[in-house]
Description:
Rossmann fold; six-stranded mixed sheet; 25% strand; globular
Amino acid sequence: MSAASKITLKGVKKAFGSNHVLRGIDLDVPKNTSLVVIGGSGTGKSVLLKCILGILPPDAGKILIDGAPIKKRDEFLSHFGMLFQGGALFDSLTVWQNVAFRLRHGKSKHSKAEAQELAIEKLRRVGLKPDVAFQYPAELSGGMQKRVGLARAIATNPEVIFFDEPTTGLDPIMAGVINELIREIVVDLGATAITITHDMSSVRAIADNVAMIHAGKVRWHGPIGEIDNSEDPYLDQFINGRADGPIESVR
């Protein structure tokens, strides 16, 4: 474990009955870096994220934050933001109320005026005009909803941000816009980021480092600049989308 590690996993295992999803995950995420986790469907990427968040307790192993076990989960969660795959916006709340939800209901308890002002500032940061703040999610396009979700993820200036399939359902142009925004925001905030995605354009745009999970373990882990010359047949097959290779496809 590096002295500059933000998140460290040691031998993390998780099973659901006889289905052993995580079989001993060892992973290190240095502070102020962006890690993208890739792998086929059902390889445990989402389970890994849920274990870090404490939604699922690992069956074995350790998860360390800043080099120490998490003693107060609520304290840790107050320092993270998350962009959910489907946006997960509250339909009954206006855009600014969605963005400011944790500002109003979390530990900080901002006033309505303060929360609204901060929400509009974050919306500007993701390229949305102030008038969008008073619309409802159903009035927005998919790309705009994704930006709102991103604004909500950064509303509290988190130390750690999780991105779950951030470009799912978006056209290639909007996906590129979201990728650029994520990269800019992570750098500007000096945050540590973990992203789960199948989209290789996102991987190349967002990642400092890449970890590939296969068969419940980290198959490959290294800098983004080394993925094309890794000489690992599993990684090579995945990033190039080849049907033939050691990863068996479901037919």
